Amino acid sequence: MPGPGPHMMYAMGSGLAMSSLTNGRFSPHHTLTYTVNAFFGPDIGSFSEWLSSTIGFGHTFASALADAIHHPFYYILILGLPLCFLYSWISRVLIQKGVLDSVSGVPLTRKQCLLLIAAGSLTHFFLDHLFEGPYLGMME
């Protein structure tokens, strides 16, 4: 699995390309949400496994949770809806406070957030599988 650098660079580069191709309709606001999910999203399962084993919860519960979340589609099914509500709310608050600049001044909708979560998850696993293909170990 690649480190945080490739996930971050690929997601930011893809967001920049999408922004160029759509003449700015895919804004930096979209790119930020997409990048957060491509970078940290599905790895939150591994983090929760480490945290729960450190706190003292059962290791079997933690690994079952980590395995369920660190999956291209289960991440979207398990955390997609709660995260889309959270990201939409954060988007609204940050635009009202003037921290984020949006071309239209409108926060991301829940549907947009859910689609960006799904795209970020799939991008994350694309890079994971690209760097850990089944044939890479055979070249040694």
TrEMBL record:
The chain crosses the membrane at residues 73-92. Keywords: Membrane, Transmembrane, Transmembrane helix. The keyword Membrane applies. PANTHER family: OS04G0465800 PROTEIN (PTHR38543). This is Uncharacterized protein. The lineage of its organism: Eukaryota, Viridiplantae, Streptophyta, Embryophyta, Tracheophyta.
